[in-house]
Amino acid sequence: MSTQKLNAAEKDVEKFIKFLALKTTQVVVQSRLGEKMETQCNPLAGNDWFNIVVVDHPDVLDETKKALALKQQGAGGESILQRLPLCVEISLKTSEGDKMILEVWSLDLIPNGGNSAQREGGDGKVSEGTGGGDNEGQTLKAAHAIYNRMSIMLKSLISLTRTTPAYKLSRRQCPDSYGIFYRIYVDRPEVHTLGEGHKNVKIGQLNTIVGSLVMSVAYRTKLTISPTAQQKEQNQIIMLKSDHFRPQSATQNDSSSPTTLPATGLQRSAANDAKRFIDIEKPLRPGAFADTGKLRQYTEDDFVLPETPPFEWLLKGRGSSIESLNRLDNLNNLNNNNSNTYNHNNNNSTGFKSYEKPNERSCMSPIKSLLIPAPTTSNGSASSTLQNHHHSDPSLTSPIDDDDNLLKELHFPFASPTSHVNDLAKFYRECYHAPPLRGINELQAEVSSSSLSSNANTQPTASSNPTGIACGSSASSAMSADPSAMDDLSRQLEQFETSLEDYDKLVSQFGLTGSSSTGSRSSGGLQMSN
Amino acid sequence: MNARSQVFDLTMEGRQVDEAVATIFHTVLFHRCLGKYMYTGDAQYSIGTVGYTDVDCDFIDFTYVCCTSESLTRTVKRAINMFSEKLRSNDSCGSGQISLEFFQKKKKSWPFQQESIPWEVWTVHLDLIKHESEDERQLCRENVSDLLTEKVIYITELMNRHDYVPKTPNQSELDLIFDTSFPDVQPYLFKFDYSTSSGSTAPSMGNAMKKIIKETLAM
């Protein structure tokens, strides 16, 4: 009877260990998904193992089962006890193909000889507390006690998975830079792959009648990909060197490949930052001693003048690069127009994108909005419904492109799907898009109506000579903008000149207060000495 | 009164206090929380399950795990807040300690008060520092994170020792061991206690009052 009882107890423990192994891999892998976890309590006796809600990820479950090669309950199959050193290896792989193993979580069973002497299976003593003594080597017999200790072990595992360096890395992972991968295998943990100075932490040890169960983790502490590893892969260094010069050339002759610059990965961009050359995508910063308050005011004023392209008179004087841009674009558009009116819109937006990128620094959004209606005016003679189609479509297509960019930026690594950050992102997206769209439409309506009225006579020849119209319309807008811009500048100059006295006064005040303060200080010093 | 006692000494900025203490206490409580017991018969019961939540700290580069229980989180937060405010107030000299004490009650005959016997005490002793530069602050942010990692590892190590925890009693005496007031989890009976070294006598009176109130509430 006692052997029967022992067998039953062993079976129980075996079952517990099996489920502990299954849950262990779940906990470890799920903690590396890069998301915040939240599982809900179920006070009404949920049937989760170890009374902890760990939702099973089917892929991980399959992988674990495959690794353990668990046979069904039938006799002859290898039990979990023989399979046990079960490891979950977490590794990092960069977008460039470099791989680094970060940590190995393992569940091992160390067989203890001569335990068969302990015969009193504790199955009956369910109410027994979880271990009565302080001896760590004590063997637990009660199924209930083992179950409870496993529950604590699993809780410890959950807590500890959040503390190792790999957790922080996994939360920051993104497909552009690196991803976190897992591998489940049955073998001794391969700790030699973790580099020098790796740490070992024993999460828990549980002595049972079938052996002592040890859960532990070994993790890497040096988180730099060594240069020797990179040297093994040929040409890697040359690649990096060529990268070193690329952004500079991109700033000089920009129009050649504008998309390559933003497409570089995280590591490269980090290297770029280290070099500290001028990044055209960043806003200009005020100088070291500039009065930031005044600077801000000035830029706000700048924003108030969106009707005309800023500094257009400068461009015009130098041979009107806007017009050349305009002409090119119109050519593009009209070629597409002739072949397919629907496709034209897509190409149109991409065309803008490629031109936009190098000009982003000068904040040319007004030019962009002016450029859009040019083809529609030439096309407007065909039908008004088509025109409407054109008006609405760029506004639909171009935001989708923007959306892609935005989504990348709005990939909040710390936001769980339930958090409010998603709402914020949605709100931001709405805010980001709505105003410019309305502006475009209004501008289109205005410009198209004005050009329609002014170019009414030339409309029939529009399709034959589109560049002329486009030039005319943009030139006329430039002409109208030119004097106002000049006026504005001269007005500003006047303003500065009139307030020159104030500035002088201010400067002299500073001088005075400075001298008075030094005076008082010196007098203080005198008093002290007296 | 031979309760196990653990003391953690931490040094950090004032604004990191709440999160650091919460990290330690929640990690402990996560291990000391069971699922709710649902009695089906006198001796038969089923145990509910405990969910867990990741919590990201704002002022420390750290994420800790706690039970998914709003009421428990609120209780812990309130206690830590009171301590933290006291510690960071002007009349504090920047050091103090807060402890999380697990206890069990002993039934006494009527005229005597119920006796609480602590069996495990976790104390966090805190010293506040101020940083001069942002670099220093950043460095400290990392240091505190490393420190907490160490503490969490230590806590789990202790939890997996075969130390004494009270036995699960019958249904009628469940309240003597567990705090059954939470709707979703069932932690062992616990209470918070704190003190700051302000020197004056008035706060200690307040503490005593609070202790009395807490004890009466705990009953």
Molecular structure report:
The complex is a heterodimer of chains A (530) and B (219). By secondary structure, chain A is of the alpha+beta class. Chain A has 3 domains: 226 residues, Cell Cycle, Spindle Assembly Checkpoint Protein, Chain A (2-Layer Sandwich), CATH 3.30.900.10; 42 residues, no CATH class; 204 residues, no CATH class. Chain A is built from 18 helices and 5 strands. Chain A has a 5-stranded antiparallel beta sheet with strand order 3-1-2-5-4. In chain A, a hairpin with a 4-residue loop joins strand 1 and strand 2. The C terminus of chain A is likely disordered. Chain B is of the alpha+beta class. Chain B has one domain: Cell Cycle, Spindle Assembly Checkpoint Protein, Chain A (2-Layer Sandwich), CATH 3.30.900. In chain B, strand 3 and strand 4 form a beta hairpin. The longest helix of chain B has 26 residues. The radius of gyration of chain B is 18 Å and the shape is globular. The two termini of chain B are 20 Å apart. At the A-B interface, helix 4, helix 5 and strand 4 of A face helix 1, strand 5, strand 6 and helix 3 of B.
